[in-house]
Amino acid sequence: MAEAASRGSGDDVSVQRVPEKKRKPLTPDQMAVSRRMFLNRAWTATFATFLGFFGMSTLSFLWPKLSGGFGTAITVGDAAEILKQVGPDGGYKPLFNPEGRFWLTYYDGTGDSPVYAAVGATELKIQALYRKCVHLGCSVPHCSKSMLFECPCHGSKYRLHGEYYGGPAPRGLDRFPVSVAAGKLVVDTGALEVGPPRGTNTWDKFAEPVGSLCVPT
Q1: Bridge partners of 186?
Q2: What's the rounded Cα separation, in Å, for the pair 159 and 207?
Q3: Which pTM was predicted?
Q4: Per-residue pLDDT tens listing for the chain (217 residues)
Q5: d(CA 53, CA 60)
Q6: Which of 103, 159, 183, 212 could form a disulfide with 94 if both were Cys (CB 3.0 to 4.6 A apart)?
Q7: Count of C-beta atoms within a 10 Å radius of residue 210
Q8: What is the rounded distance in angstroms from the CA atom of residue 55 to the CA atom of residue 48?
Q9: Is 2 in contact with 9 (CB distance < 8 Å)?
């Protein structure tokens, strides 16, 4: 009894490892529990990895790239050459820029709506029209037959210079400011300007379609 009391009063107790020959194997129930724990941890790790990649891709979508691309100022190319491509010498055909998601178009109207001065169109005779339809956000292509921008989703139509022509759209196409630096055309896709309201008509030359429509009304 004295020896047991002395051990309980603070003497070190050595723990001996059970020899492998005397160890009892795990029961089937214990092994099943171990498998479930392993699978649960594996699924948890996989789900956490998925959330991590999803979070990073979401942030990269919400935050524009600071080094270039949509949401920044994009240098398109030589301003004089681009003006020739989209102007009378090039048949007034718009030029699409996929990086900036805009159409470059010629403009020789009166500029009566305030947005034209805000984006520099009256001075440079060129515009950068955002390709996004102001109705429900579909990408708007240009119809070479009618010389209108015609939305394939719900039929909204815009003139060559982005003014409203027809359909459910509430206004003309939104647009980005343009400028010239060292002879290069620069489009600021981080400063979107709201398009002119319905009823705006500042250029008679393309006030009406020049041919058949690509998207019937």
Answers
A1: 75, 179
A2: 7
A3: 0.69
A4: 444 444 444 455 555 665 655 556 656 655 555 566 766 777 677 767 766 655 555 544 455 444 568 899 999 999 999 999 999 999 999 999 999 999 999 999 999 999 999 999 999 999 999 999 999 999 999 999 999 999 999 999 999 999 999 999 999 999 999 999 999 999 999 999 999 999 999 999 999 999 999 998 7
A5: 11
A6: 103
A7: 14
A8: 10
A9: no
